[in-house]
Every structure is written in C-alpha cells, then in structure tokens.
Amino acid sequence: MVAVAIGATLAVPWAAQADPAPLAGFDISASQGVPDLAAAKAHGAVFAFVKDTAGVAYVNPDYLNQFRAVKAAGLIRGSYHYARPDKSSGAEQAVYLHDHDGKWFSDGMSLPPALDMEDTPGAPPCYDMPPQAMVAWIQDFSTTLARLTGHNPIIYTSTRWWKACTGNSTAFAGDHVLWLARYNSEMGELPGGWRAGFWQSAVNGPLPGNQDSYFGDLGQLRGLTTGG
Predict the structure, then answer these.
(1) Which domain holds residue 56?
(2) Confidence (pTM)
(3) For residues 177 and 159, what is the distance between their CA atoms, to the nearest angstrom?
(4) 189 assigned to active site
(5) Residue 125 covered by a domain
(6) Which among 86, 92, 118, 119 is annotated as catalytic?
(7) Are 197 and 174 spatial neighbours (Cβ–Cβ below 8 Å)?
(8) Which family is this protein grouped under (predicted)?
(9) CATH code of 74's domain
C-alpha cells in the first residue's frame, strides 16, 4: 500500500444506500482549444479535468487558458498528468506536474490532480515493465504528489490496462479514487478492488472533449476538493 494516507482521497465516493444520478463532466486537452464552457455548464456540466503535463517533456500549451476558463465557468476542476513510466521515475513526473501548475488549491473547487495510466502508441505494451515495477512506479508518483499537495492522485485507467500492467493490483483501492476509461453504455467490471468514482464513457457528446460522469452526489464531489 502507499504509505501516505490523506484526507479526502481516503474515502471512495459512493452512496451505498441510494445511488444518485451521476454528475456530468468532461475532460479536455490541447486538441479542444478553449471551448464554450459557459454553454457546457448550462448543458449540465458540474466538473472538468484539463490535461496539464505528460512525462517530463510536455506541457499542454493551452492549459492555463483552459483551466482559467473552467474556473470562470464555475466548474469543479482538476488537472491530469499523462504518465510515461518509460521516461523517468514516478517521483520525477509528480514534481514535473506540480512545477507546471498541477497544484491543489484549498478553494473548495479544486480536485486532486489525476494520474493517467494507459499505453502510449508506439511504446511497448505496459512500457515493458513487469506488474511489480509498474505498481512501484505508481506508488512513487503518488507518494511524491501527496507530499507536494496533501492529496493522493485520482487514478485514470482502464480495466484491461490495469489487469495487464499491474496484475490487477488492489494497492490503491482504499485511498485513491478511480477514474475509469471505458467507452460503452455500461461501466462493466471495475479493476483493482475499486468502487465506482469517475467514468470516462465516450470521446464525444454534448459536452466538450471526452464525456465523464461522477458516481456520487454534489456533496461527495465537493468533499474531494476540501480534504475533509
């Protein structure tokens, strides 16, 4: 298990007694520019993630403008880092994200940064890392980010990738929120002992960028922003 245990990210967002309707959101990168986010909010968006960094050599050139637009629209927001375990250590990439505006703010609207774990076109599957090494890399990133921000990262991944590349590790299920990637009408099987958190279900739809949902109510979502 990751040694750091931090407030808001300890509780997996889930209402066991009655499942509320998922909250709508989206995630964007440089591909989307700065969309009409006031219209997105009017269409029901509650939260958004913005790609910030990848590896240790890429920063989204539109990140600051996109993040400011998300903030101006009054959306709950978070940044995400695209992991490249083949390029440097998890700790180095956590520092890179933090040094390039991937911070957490105690404003009641900022989600913990997210870590995007998936294969990269042109790179070997699982970056040629055995599951034990991949889990250690993620732990290294998480421990460092928690030290810098006070929060464990949200972890973005697919069930297929997590099973293949971490051996379906359950090391993060208790204190990291899952952001599942599965383009389907149903979430399907969840990896690694997780319960439902965020779900990226489509690459396009009524909101800008990728279409996301949060399985919890607004109070639970806001709970992730406060550390309480």
Answers:
(1) 7-226
(2) 0.90
(3) 14
(4) no
(5) yes
(6) 118
(7) no
(8) Belongs to the glycosyl hydrolase 25 family.
(9) 3.20.20.80
